Amino acid sequence: MSEDYVFNDTLPVAPLKIAALESCRELAQKVDQHIIRFRQNDIEVLKKREQDLNFRGYDRESYLLDCACPRFGSGEGKGVINESIRGDDIYVMVDVTNYSLTYRMNGFINHMSPDDHFQDLKRIIGATVSTAHRVNVIMPFLYEGRQHKRAGRESLDCSLMLRELVNMGVSNIITFDAHDPRVQNAIPLTGLDNFMPTYQFIQSIFRKDKTLKIDKDHLMVISPDEGAMSRAVYLANNLGVDVGMFYKRRDYSRVVGGRNPIVAHEFLGSSVEDKTVIIIDDMISSGESMLDTARELKEKKAKRVIVATTFGLFTDGLEKFDDFYNKGYFDFVVTTNLNYRTPDLLKRDWYVEADMSKFIAAIINSLNHNVSLERALVPTSRIQNIIREYNRESDGYQYVNSLV
Q1: Do residues 297 and 222 touch, judged by C-beta distance below 8 A?
Q2: Distances in whole angstroms, Cα of residue 316 to Cα of each of 158, 282, 355
Q3: Which residues contact 256 (CB under 8 A, 6 or more apart)?
Q4: Within a 10 A sphere around the Cβ of 63, how many other Cβ atoms?
Q5: Cβ atoms within 10 A of the Cβ of 372, count?
Q6: Do residues 284 and 335 touch, judged by C-beta distance below 8 A?
Q7: Which DSSP helix (H) or strand (E) runs through 157?
Q8: Residue 130: how many CB atoms within 10 A of its CB?
Q9: With left for phi above 0 and alpha for psi between -120 and 50, is residue 231 left, alpha or beta?
Q10: Do residues 373 and 363 make contact, with C-beta atoms less than 8 angstroms apart?
Q11: pLDDT tens per residue, the chain (404 residues)?
Q12: CATH classification of 16-195, choosing from 1.10.390.10, 3.40.50.2020, 3.10.180.10, 3.40.50.300?
């Protein structure tokens, strides 16, 4: 294993504990296993250097905290910690999009909403913050992140959420591909780290398709709207290819389903004819906009269409994606495992998953040692390395076992 996460002269700020809510338990278990391997490797390397490990606190079989959020028959809940956490460095993990979990209230079965998950998060914080050394929150999908700005007489839910967590005593908030990272201005004196999965996207695409040609004549990166341009530009610059953009022309004279309907998608950029195009965005919600973009690109004679988004929510189901895939409008969809994915989605031939567990483990391990996160925040060098490795392989990409 690489020595990138061997901390020579740095002790953990406190013993590490991961408080995984039920919504995020599967991902947290993977993260836990990676941290165990990181620290076993750390022990082996430092022993060879004859460095003292007595006070590192690495002698654990698991870093997962025994905690739960049970509910009463009335639907009320509470946070319960079943072991001592005095002086520990707590990392609370929650997936606010996990609608598969249910609870009983007055005999009825309710599916948990983002609001329910946020309340459970606060319960765990409330049960730990008074005695823990530090409480950190890992919230991959930022709660109410889509309600990040005010247009008229509206609430600013995401800003309120961040302020509430800070007021409760949270020290750091870690999220991924925030819909608008400027929302961190609501808590200017508290850390909010927004990580991007660009490296994992490239890694997953290269594993799936070993025939890609990384040059301007064969590959292009597409932003489906104005909001995703920064993501597309960063990916395109790393790949050394051109970028294009669609903008949504809306009918502002009427409102349908709470929003102004899209009249057409207009394309800005060079020709996509006979090129493989990668559409990149932060999320697939209903998927309508993404599928329309894929269809437009195919009608413009794009050779292949690859979709890469951080969060695959698929709020309107998978049937339309199946239909578009069967019609050849796109080749495959890459999303991360940062949010809940249905068993049906995992079985789809067109679905590719980018595993973020090792990345999260590296972030937690670094924060627990109070070392710089620059390598994780700016993964440009790792992206360039994986592209060079891909290009060196004449017969296609061979996986290089990197840390994250």
Answers
A1: yes
A2: 24, 17, 24
A3: none
A4: 26
A5: 9
A6: yes
A7: helix 157-168
A8: 10
A9: alpha
A10: yes
A11: 455 556 666 788 999 999 999 999 999 999 999 999 888 877 676 666 555 555 566 778 899 999 999 999 898 999 999 999 999 999 999 999 999 999 999 889 999 999 999 999 999 999 999 999 999 999 999 999 988 888 888 899 999 999 999 999 999 999 999 998 899 999 999 989 999 999 999 999 999 998 899 999 999 999 988 888 999 999 999 999 999 998 877 778 888 777 777 777 788 888 999 999 999 999 999 998 899 899 999 999 999 999 999 999 999 999 999 999 999 999 999 999 999 999 999 999 999 999 999 999 999 999 998 888 876 667 888 899 899 888 887 454 444 444 44
A12: 3.40.50.2020
- State the DSSP H helix or E strand holding residue 268, giving kind and residue range, or none if neither: strand 262-268
Please compute, for residue 157, the number of CA atoms within 13 A of its CA located in the half-sphere on the CB side.
10
Supply the Cα-derived Rg of the chain in whole angstroms.
Answer: 22
Q: Distances in Å between the alpha carbon of 6 and those of 17, 48, 267?
A: 19, 12, 47
Name the pTM for this structure: 0.90
Closest-CA residue to 35 (of 375, 353, 360): 360
Q: Which helix (H) or strand (E) holds 110?
A: strand 108-111
Residues 176, 336 contacting (CB under 8 angstroms): yes
End-to-end CA distance of the chain: give it in Å, rounded.
11
CA 91/CA 83 separation, integer angstroms? 15
129: Cβ–Cβ under 8 A, 6 or more apart, which residues? 135, 168, 169, 170
CATH of 198-355+373-392, one of 1.10.555.10, 2.70.70.10, 3.40.50.2020, 3.40.190.10: 3.40.50.2020
Give the Cα separation of 360 and 336 in Å (integer). 12
Q: Where are the domains of the chain?
A: 16-195, 198-355+373-392
H helix intervals, 210-282:
229-239
Identical fold for domains 16-195 and 198-355+373-392, yes or no, is yes
